[in-house]
Amino acid sequence: MMANARQNVQTTFDELNHCKQHLQDALNTVEKDQNRQKIQRSLDAVNNAINVTQDTISTYTES
Question: If you write DSSP's letter for every residue of 1-55 in order, what string do you get?
Fold first, then answer.
């Protein structure tokens, strides 16, 4: 059965949190400062996406 819109948003939220964990793991193992900065920018973008997605979930209204 196909997921509805809210379920898809929830799945996105869950997957973004997995991405966040992987990026945090990468920060813990990266050696070069230049790469650390790039990973941190990616992590910042994912954190922003998590916040926006959480807001979508919190304010989602069913018809």
Answer: ----HHHHHHHHHHHHHHHHHHHHHHHHH---HHHHHHHHHHHHHHHHHHHHHHH
Give the CA count within 13 Å in the CB-facing half-sphere of 29. Answer: 6
Domain chopping of the chain, boundaries? 5-24+32-58
**From CA 24, how far away is CA 43, in angstroms rounded?**
7
Q: CB atoms < 10 A from the CB of 3, how many?
A: 10
6-27 pLDDT, tens digit each = 999 999 999 999 999 999 999 9
Q: Give this prediction's pTM.
A: 0.91
